[in-house]
Amino acid sequence: MHGPEQLGRWSSHESANCGADTGLLRAGRRYRVIKAFVDFDGDGHPVGECWTFLGYSFVPHDDGMSWFVSLDGEREWLVRLQWRAEAQAEVLEHLAEHLAEDA
C-alpha cells in the first residue's frame, strides 16, 4: 500500500482503464475488510480495516488492478493487486468474501 498522498494524487487521473465503480466497489462508499488478504506489495489488510473507495485503475498488460482509497477522508492511498492466480486473483474474483460495505 502506497501513501498517504493528497486527495486526487491517483484518483483524479482519467483514462480508458480508470473508473469509479468496479461492480462491488463504488466510489464514495466505505468498505471494511471481512477476510484478510495481502496486496501485491506484500502489505496485509486485516479484518476490520476500513476505508473509503475512491476509484480504480487497471493495467491489462500486467493484470494490475489499483484501488485508490482513503483511510481518513483527507488523504489517499494506493492498494495494488495483480489479477493472476499466483497473486491476488482470488481476492479480485471473490470481492464479496473479502470486503463488505461498512454501515
Number of domains: 1
User: How many angstroms does the end-to-end distance come to?
Assistant: 24 Å
Largest sheet: 7 strands, antiparallel
Total of helices: 2
- CATH top level class name: Mainly Beta
* Low-confidence regions: none
The rough form would be described as: globular
The whole-angstrom Rg is: 12 Å
Tell me the CATH superfamily: mobile metagenome of vibrio cholerae. Integron cassette protein vch_cass4
**CATH architectural arrangement:** Roll
Annotated CATH topology? SH3 type barrels
Encode the helix/strand succession as letters: EEEEEEEEHHE
Mean residue pLDDT? 92
Sheet/helix structural class: mainly beta
Number of strands: 9
Strand content: 35-45%
State the helicity in percent bands.
Answer: under 10%
Description:
The protein is built from two helices and nine strands; from the N terminus they run E-E-E-E-E-E-E-E-H-H-E. By secondary structure, the chain is mainly beta. It has a single domain (2-101), classed as SH3 type barrels (Roll), CATH 2.30.30.350. The strands form two sheets. Strands 1, 2, 3, 6, 7, 8 and 9 form a seven-stranded antiparallel sheet that branches. The mean pLDDT is 92.
Summary keywords:
seven-stranded antiparallel beta sheet; SH3 type barrels; two-stranded antiparallel sheet; 42% strand; 103 residues; globular; mainly beta; 9 strands
Write the layout of secondary structure elements.
Layout: E1 2-6, E2 18-19, E3 30-33, E4 37-38, E5 44-45, E6 50-59, E7 64-70, E8 75-82, H1 89-93, H2 95-98, E9 99-101
Antiparallel strand pairs: 1-8, 2-6, 3-6, 3-9, 4-5, 6-7, 7-8
